[in-house]
Structures are given as structure tokens and as C-alpha cells.
Amino acid sequence: QTSIYPDVTLITPTAQMSPSMHGGRAKCLQRLIRLDMPVPTTLALSFAAVQRCAKGQLPPVESLLEPFGEMPLLSVRPSSQDPDWGGPGAILNIGMNAVSHRHLTKRVGEAAATALYLRFVQSYAVHVARLDPEVFDFPNLTGIHALHAALDTFEAEAEEPFPQDVGVQLSEVLRSMARAWDGTSARLLREAKGAPVDAGLGLVVQAMALGVGDGESGSGVIQYVNATTGQPQVVGRYLSQSQGRDALNDKAGAIYLTSDQRGPALEDICPDVFAQLLAYGWTARSRLREEMQIEFTLEDGVLHILDAVRVQRSSRAQVQIAVDLASDGIIPREEAVMRVPSNALSEMLHRQVDPAAVRDVIVRGIAASPGAATGRIVLTAAEAQASAARGEACVLVRRETTPEDIRGMHAAQAVLTMRGGITSHAAVIGRGLGVPCVVGASDLTIDRKRGQIVAPGGRRFAVGETITIDGTTGTVLAGSPQMLEATLDASFQTLLSWADDFRDIGVRANADTPADAQTASNFAAEGIGLCRTEHMFFEGDRLGVMREMIFAETADDRRAVLDRLLPMQRNDFAELFAIMQGRPVCIRLFDMPLHEFLPYDKAGQRDLAEQLAMPLTAVTDRVQALSEYNPMLGMRGVRQGIAIPEIYEMQARAIFEAVADVAARGLVVQPEIMIPLISAMREVELIKVRVDSVARAVQSEMGVTFAFKLGVMVETPRAALRAQDIVKHASFLSFGTNDLTQMTYGLSRDDAGRFMSTYVQQGVYEEDPFHTLDLDGVGELLAIGAARGRAGRPDVVVSICGEHGGTRAAIGFCRAQGFNYVSCSPFRVPLARLSAAQLAL
Ligand code: PEP
Ligand code: MG
């Protein structure tokens, strides 16, 4: 008979129990009992029973005490459904009173008996009777004197004697633990850990194994892996004459478990017990299919197993353990893939601020590019480069970054901006480079005169002072807190290779530079889904050439100037092709308003006039002429490609010549050319005619043949709506959800940061749509575009390459719509591979 009262169960191998009725701890204890481990007699109170206890309706105490025999000593522990949700602290030694004190004195000696009684009175007073803990501290009293003082104090404070009846003691403990679970702070705490509002609490009542007395008695904790690395290792502590988890708290008295040079170990004093613990560990691992930490007690040399919990672990250990369990055939590979949350991978890919470190937060912003880095404050890209040249780590702080800052961003360890959101220039480049980045820290100002940044509360940090950017949490910290290094070990690679076997959507990377491409390749991206070419025009002295081109009078003059860029672009592309060998590389033609190449301040314009040997007015006139009210909706992308065709012609030639060069070296190349900002079919047609003719020219000039694909970015609503038509001239459609979100909402991706947090706080938007793909609105355009595209050309390849591409929600959506692949920042590729597999399983 296991059910001793409705909802109260004596835990036996066959009792009807489940984590959702009795909690994880109770269910785990049953598993240990089934594995024949020496678990003391234990009762489980279900969630329903505990709920009634909170209302004062306790099960009859005689039936609770019956399984424990004469004069029991008991512990009560919480058992929530998910052990991570916590619960009230355990209470030990219930049943201690004057009579059991006398009895125990005979059995284990007066000192030990008194210590147990005192401990119980103290924890009962504080946790059950809710008396002030301070008055139960007796620093000058020991032994029986302290016990008497505790009993007297209890009587004085509670206005009744300390309860002597074990039934009363137990009932009160159950009632107070049940009610603690309903308290506001406990509820908030567990909800923060993901518990549902109605999460239940079970309780387990267990016969105490004493851990004090004659023979070898004591308690300890053992686990079989290292919590940081996940590698096999016996870790734990044992403390003679102790109870519960004392061994972990008393660093001085506790001893190690395995024998080595550090002093006496449990293995030396009790080799049989140690061997037994190793055997139990092995059984628990293989049968519970998890790495467990076991709490044990020795009573006169006899081993008791009191409890087992899942080993707390770092992200790195989480991956290692999952891979090891699957490699040992304990869990299937599918389950290993499912067990690792993608944020664990993200932590492994970047240095992190040590969770144990002290954090002095200066200001908060948007977490734009994960990882943490420390450096001295610099306020300009030039200072960042100078700093790098001196070998000094720096953090580039800007109001916002522009393409001109790119080299500074390369040189900096981290980037902080005051403006911009998740798709701002700083954020996109930061993620691409793997540089930690916090954007939109709008509470921060720059005091240029004094060379300081000013944080909320008036805290000032001067150029050269050290700060830390935590791009994972979006915080800026003073000084240099302790860091945890990134670790890409073999288990990480193994897990991802398993993930690849299960996923059914491709993963490519957005990569602009050879370094990006190398990262993408290291992370096994299946190709480049978006190579933005704009930054290439800022490298070395190319900016000067672009400016000359802008001032050229005729198309021929423009062509002549652009011819100087051609070999450089050819090199850029050849490098990408070589790195991505055989995998497709999708190059997006130039997409940037030309005025961004011109200096906006007078000094810069004067400088440029000097360089070009032109009157200043010619420069200012040009700047004026190119300036637009709404550049994001102006002369950019394909519009420029049609109005000033020489740039695209040069790029197409550079791509094809690079294809020919690399193919001549015996490498396989799969080039793809992508046209940005399409809104009409005729745009594609016009560009295609030109690109095809450049291809023919290069083939005949170089005496080679090659294949390439031409496709379009779908980043205007009209392109999605007209996809059936547009796809006539395009073999692939790639959704640029950054611009598509901007244009669907009519929301500037560069300015929305100013009110986005207000909007999200007030529930106008559930999330920042530049961060989390808006499935309802933008998603509908994706679905329409994909369907109409396929209607026009059944074999069209469909993908997403906006910043959303690496997020789980977007991957899920794209899978459901039958997309061929997603493309995301190189550092997100591993997460995307894992998420895609988890979604498919
Ligand atoms: C997009 O608009 O989603 C895109 C990928 O292009 P960009 O971010 O360069 O505008
Ligand atoms: Mg775009």
C-alpha cells in the first residue's frame, strides 16, 4: 500500500508518481529507489496536498508519521515540478524534543544530540515560527547552554513553549513551507525562471540519516563531472559529523572525495563507501540519463542516499555532457541536440563577463552584438586606429557610426553608440565582425570639449579610462570585470554536425570581408547569402576614387575613374570565392546613397576641394545636389544602378573576372549576383540585360565560360506583391527584412530607436520589429512573396537575409513557408544550425 492518504504517497518502486503531480525531487527519489539505492523511507505530498496544507487542511498527522516508526527524526524538502524553480529551504531534525534528546544522547553522545536539537530549534524558530534570526544567535554560549538559551528565547518570543509533539512540529513545518511557496517574492522569483503562474509545490518527508555519532558518520555531496568543462571528474566534499549540505558550507572542515596530495580524502578513510558512490554515480548517469549530483550521509559507516539533483553547469559543460551522453549511447543524438538551448552556444562563441564578477553598471542600451570586451574609451575612429597601432585595447564610443567609422570599428574591441537600434550600422557591422556592441544607450552623452562621456547620475568617464561593453546583456560597465573565455571545443563541433543531420533548411552567412567569410566557413555555413559591397568602397584609398567618380562630368569619365576600382573589387571577390570554395557566394550590387561618400562638414569639404583641385563652391554645390530629404527611400540600390549604370557594370565585370581567375586556379565557384531595392519587374530586366552583356564580354575576352545566377532582394512591399512578375528575370528571391520591415511599418530603421522602448513598454509593438520578425505583417508579405514567386517560377530559390535570419522565430517561420535557406551574421550561424535542427525534430 503506497497511498497512505489522498495525495500522500509512500515512495516505493511502484507508487503512482509524476513530476507534474509530486514534483521533480519526489519523482527522482523514486527513480533512485527503483535503482536499489539506499534511500531512507520517504513520503511524497502532492501539489494538491500541499495546496490544502497552505489553507490549513493537513493530512491526519498519525498517518503521516506511521511509516517512520517510533520516535522518528525527519526532514522536509521542497519538490517543485522543475527543480530550477526553487522552493522553501529544507528543514532537518523534525522530531527533536526533550525525550529524543535523552535517547540520542545515549546513542550518539550529548554533544551531537544537543547540536541536532539546537539546530532544529533555530531553524524552526526562524523558518516556521518566523521569529527574528538575530535573537537566536548565541555567540558566547555552546552546547547545552546554547540549547537552553534557544528554548527559553523561543518561549519568550513565541509566547508559548517550543512544541514537543512531533505531530505538531511536522504539521507546522508543512504548513509554513506550503505557505512560503505562495508568498509574493517566491512567486516572482520562480516566474523569472520561467515557471507558470500556477506552478505547484510538492513536499517530501524523509527519515533522517543522522550523519553524527559513533563510527564514521557525516554527510557529503558528490558529482561525476566538472561543472565548468563537463569533463568526467569526481567532484565533491565530505564532512564528518555533519548533516545536509554542510560539507559545502564548511570549507575548512570538509575533505575531498578522491585521494590525492591535498590531504586525507573519503577514498582513503572509507574506500568501500567511495567505491559504492562511484557505482551509484554510474547507475544514475546511465539510468536517469543525466549527470546528477548526489547528496549522501554516512551513519556509522553505512551509506544512505538522500537526494539527487541535476548538476548545475556552464554552457560549455552543457554541450559536453549532452554530447558525451549521446556518444555513450545513453541518449539518442536527437535528444542531445534538443537539450542544448541556443543561448548556451551563443555564450560559448564569445567572451562573457563572469557571472560571478561584480558589475558596476554605468548605463544600459540595446544588446546589439553579443560578447564582452574591455578597453579604454576613444571617441573617434582615428583614435581607435591609433590605439590599435599602439597595441592598446579600446572601446569606440560614438553617437552613431557611419561607414566612415568602419576601420575604427575593426580596430576597437567593442563599440558603444547612443543612437540606433538593432539594425543600425554599428549593430550590423558589430555582429558581422563579432565585436561586442551596445547601441541606443540614449541616457549617455558625449562631452567633446572635455573629452568625456557622461552617464546617468552625472558620472563622467574620460577618454583613456577603462570600461567594459557587455553586448550580451546590453550593459556598459566601469573597469574590467573578470571574464570567461570563449571555447569552441570538439563537443561543440560534434553537436552541430549532428544538428546538420536533422535540419531541413539551409544556413548561409552574411559576410562582407574575407575575415567574415573565413568565420562563416569555420562555422560551416553553406555559402554566403549576402555580401554587402558598400564597405569595399571605403577601404584604403578607394574613398578618394569614389569621390572623384561622383565629381566626374560624363559617363565615360565615370567609367575611367571606376576602372581604377575594378582590380581592387576583383581581388575582393576572388578572395571570397577562394575561401568559400565550391559553396555559393551571393554578391549584392552596390546599395548606398552617394552623398554618404562626401564630407558633411565645412572642413572636410574644404579638404576635398583641395584634393580635387576644385573651388570649394563646386564641392558644396555637389553635396547640395546629392542631398535628399529621405535618402532611405531615395536614390539607392537598383535606382542608382539604372541612373548611373557604370557602378554596376564595374562590379559585374569585377565579379566575372574574379570567377574566371579563381576557376583558372582549379577552384569551383558558384557566383550569384543580387539586385537590391527592387520594386518593379522592368528594373530587373534592365539590370539583367547589362549584367548578361558584361558576362558575355568577359567570357569572350578571357576565352572562358562560366555560369552564374541573378536574383533580387525583396525588400519593398511592392516587390513581395509583384513577385510573380519580378521572378521572370530572377532565379532567386532573398527577403531583406530590414528594409522590408522599415517600409512595411513606415518606420525608419535608423531613427525608430528613439521611441521604440516607449512603444514596446506601452504594448504598441510586442517587440522591436527590427529585432523580432513581425510574423503578422512583414511575415504575411514574406508568405505572399514566396508563394507568388513560386507561382511565377516553380524552381525559384527563396531565402531571407535580413538581420532576422538567424533568430529562432524567423527560422521557424521560413521553414513553415518552405524557404530554401536563411542567411545571418557569421557568428549566428552555429545558433541557426542548432535552432533549425531543434525546430525540425
Ligand atoms: C535588408 O534590408 O534586410 C538587407 C539585408 O539589406 P541592408 O540591411 O543592407 O539594407
Ligand atoms: Mg536592405
Structure write-up:
This protein is α/β, with parallel strands linked by helices. It has 4 domains: 205 residues, ATP-grasp fold, A domain (Dna Ligase, domain 1, 2-Layer Sandwich), CATH 3.30.1490.20; 96 residues, ATP-grasp fold, B domain (D-amino Acid Aminotransferase, Chain A, domain 1), CATH 3.30.470.20; 134 residues, Glucose Oxidase, domain 1, CATH 3.50.30.10; 262 residues, TIM Barrel. It has 35 helices and 31 strands. The strands form 6 sheets. Strands 12-22-21-14-15-16-17-13 form an 8-stranded mixed sheet. β14, α16 and β15 form a beta-alpha-beta unit. α27 crosses α28. The longest helix has 22 residues. It is elongated and about 110 Å long. Bound molecules: phosphoenolpyruvate and magnesium ion (MG).
Compose a concise summary of this entry:
By secondary structure, the chain is an alpha/beta fold.
